[in-house]
Amino acid sequence: MPQTQYKHTRCCEWLRCCGGGEPRPRTVWLGHPEKRDQRYPRNVINNQKYNFFTFLPGVLFNQFKYFFNLYFLLLACSQFVPEMRLGALYTYWVPLGFVLAVTVIREAVEETRCYVRDREVNCQAYSRLTARGTVKVKSSNIQVGDLIIVEKNQRVPADMIFLRTSEKNGSCFLRTDQLDGETDWKLRLPVACTQRLPTAADLLQIRSYVYAEEPNIDIHNFVGTFTRVSRLS
């Protein structure tokens, strides 16, 4: 896959939690993240179900929200009442404690794996195009409006607009297995007016913006327009 030049225009479903209110259409200026018209969440992937404080309460809640698990817990607790005791306490609490211990350990291992994978993705370095040249930036620090260079075999770090490729015919092949599960390569073409620019640095010399629809769950359709105003004076 050839080297490609992208514009980051991401907005996710957590926008409401970040103070942005309901998701709405947005206008993003090319290479000028400071001109964003609303507040966006960070470009961070988080697949963990719990944090440090909610881990144990969350695991216990998910176990005892089922009727039979809750029934066995209440039955074990009832054995502390002498009039209701049917046998030794360990016959109730040892099996329950063993099941809970195995569950907690399994969830802890899974959460650790998710943390390691998320950290690896969020810390992956990309090249950001600026007026002073290219600078390295972590995936988690990419902002809406940044110009990001994605190299061959690199993972696309966010929702992006394809602006330019090093291939003269303007073709680029992407694999979307992380979106729709399809592992075959798909042909993508860049914006025509930006592909005709002599170099990638010329993207910073034009005044352009993208108008994009509000975020939604449909990954197969996108409504947006790319507008080039004029050259910078």
TrEMBL record:
The keyword Electron transport does not apply. Residues 33-93 form the P-type ATPase N-terminal domain. It comes from the Eukaryota. Keywords: Membrane, Transmembrane, Transmembrane helix. Residues 129-167 form the P-type ATPase A domain. Pfam families: E1-E2_ATPase, PhoLip_ATPase_N. SUPFAM superfamilies: Calcium ATPase, transduction domain A (SSF81653), Calcium ATPase, transmembrane domain M (SSF81665). One of its GO terms (cellular component) is endosome. The chain crosses the membrane at residues 88-109. GO terms for molecular function: ATPase-coupled intramembrane lipid transporter activity. GO terms for biological process: endocytosis; phospholipid translocation; retrograde vesicle-mediated transport, Golgi to endoplasmic reticulum. PANTHER family: PHOSPHOLIPID-TRANSPORTING ATPASE IIA-RELATED, PROBABLE PHOSPHOLIPID-TRANSPORTING ATPASE. This is P-type phospholipid transporter. It comes from Gulo gulo (Wolverine).
